[in-house]
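Hello Y.,

Per our agreement to keep a running log of every chain we model this quarter, I'm adding this entry. I've kept the format consistent with earlier entries: sequence first, then predicted structure.
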Amino acid sequence: MSGAIHIETDYARGTVYPTGALFTGIEFKIPSGRWVKPMATAPWGEVLDPEIPGHLRRLGGEFFCLPFGGGGTVRDPVAGWENLVTAPTNEPMHGPAANEDWTFIAQEAHSVRLSLDLPDEYAVSRIERCIALGTDRPFTRSTVSLEIRRDGRVPLAFHPILRLPEELSRLELSADFAQGFTYPALIEPDRMACEPGKTFASLQHVPKRRGGSVDLSHLPLGPRVDDVVLLAGMNGPLRAAFHDDGYELTVDWPRSLLPHCLVWIHDRGIDVPPWNASYRGIGIEPLASAFDAPWAVSEGENPLAKAGFPTALALSAGGPVELFCDLSVAAL
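Predicted structure for the entry above:
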């Protein structure tokens, strides 16, 4: 099998591409009979430039990252996080799982299965990913199975990206977590909504850049933004209510394996191609990782790990490890 594959039921539909095993164009039918589109799509459509990492070519929908992160353009780390800028940056961002071309190995009307073999440098030898749609309700499940060639540790994540409404504060996020952390360095070109290196207990009251607080539970904020916060020790799924459209999306996953959620807020925040100050979306990323740090930072000692929040998944030879990410929709 090659090319994109469309899957559909009476309650959900979408398209799966081999590059990054991207699941995009996701739609759900709510009880009124209306189809809704909670996920972001790239305003540039598709980038054909092979120099652009795979996950950016149709950025949106949902995909899986292994290893997650890789570092980026940051400076002025807070105390304890100096290795954010000294550790080698990994290319491409989010590893081969998010960027390489997967192989389609099975297809039905409501599901598709893909596989990706990894080179010997990785403790994971093979990944299989199954995307299945609900046949009796508006629901999707993305399942990942990891085959392990040797003991190790790896940062990893699912990467759903929700769309941002046009009107301010009309997307409401609800999450129960042990501790929130703002990014522990300055993200260039400093369009951060939050003050770096701070903690918080509620999305409604997050330390704001240069003083005060900002409510991250109601988005969009208005100004151009590129920022991330980590919700460590999640106690349940994350819910996103689209008030203008009358429905709620729930993102759920196995928190015993992916204990945290990274919330990436991007509203026209990057100027360079293919972004061109045009992308709008919010990543709701179940993960075991130290933010989007270089892989060595997440795999080793760091302030989050020292505080009791695991930043990589421990692997044992022989495996496998099973993970999932569920998306479901209900009327408000």
